[in-house]
């Protein structure tokens, strides 16, 4: 644990120094390839930093924030595109907007923030899941797939919500939500494009989808050119996930996770093609409840088939849950200690007050 904390400090100090360089030097260089070349050392460093950890959580979080988000945002920044353009007015904002899956909200609306009750319910469900892991030896691997998916979703939501609130207080500005109730998605397009991990599609659109669509429009109509763009975005997402899996497993890619995203890209493209046929939509329009069940069910079933097997075989899922249990136990112990100190201070203050009142009464009687 001590070594991991030391590595965490070293990694994020290196990241902050690197991003500070990106804020001051590259903007003075002409956009395009010259600016991209000036950022290459930082991009290379962010590919290596996740390897500094043995912890699954720290490797995953660092890889997601630096290797994926920061690198893609900096590449877009090289060409005057993406969420870092226009250049944020302060270094602190540039660092936060580069590393974290956040974006300043243009038209702040209080209803966009996750209600406290919903967040509390998610934390409670997460706690119940961790408790149920004590009985996982009695359950078949197939039955454990659903809890693993729920655990992954809830932990991502809790961590990102915590980071968002801390950054929001630190920067003093409203931020876009990171997700929009993905369990209510009525289609794959709705799930991947408008509900799940919203910062990722916001980056992939200008970085992959738009360039691929422009190239495709040279050889086909604009109506059909969107399909190669969709497939390219899903393929790139799959390749990045392969890299994330490598950081977690330290094993050579099996390409299962890439196939998962290729499959979803093809299905999303087919879904859009069907939606273009208005007669089909009128005849086969499903109710929102059925659409949600089919969409979420498809994601879970295909995820159990292609997304999680490598993580289960390599023991990453077991390490992931064990680390979560250790962190919860550590926090619980600290909370009990703090609660004990708080109660003790209240009791001591109470008796001190009573003692002073008693002494004051004695002095008054003798006076």
UniProtKB/TrEMBL annotation:
The chain crosses the membrane at residues 7-26, 117-135, 223-248, 254-274, 286-307, 327-351. GO terms for biological process: lipid metabolic process. InterPro entries: Wax_synthase, Wax_synthase_dom, Wax_synthase_Magnoliopsida. GO terms for cellular component: membrane. It is found in: Membrane. It comes from the Eukaryota. Keywords: Acyltransferase, Lipid metabolism, Membrane, Transferase, Transmembrane, Transmembrane helix. It is a multi-pass membrane protein. GO terms for molecular function: O-acyltransferase activity. Residues 176-262 form the Wax synthase domain. Pfam families: MBOAT_2. PANTHER family: LONG-CHAIN-ALCOHOL O-FATTY-ACYLTRANSFERASE 3-RELATED, LONG-CHAIN-ALCOHOL O-FATTY-ACYLTRANSFERASE 5-RELATED. Belongs to the wax synthase family. This is (rape) hypothetical protein. The lineage of its organism: Eukaryota, Viridiplantae, Streptophyta, Embryophyta, Tracheophyta.
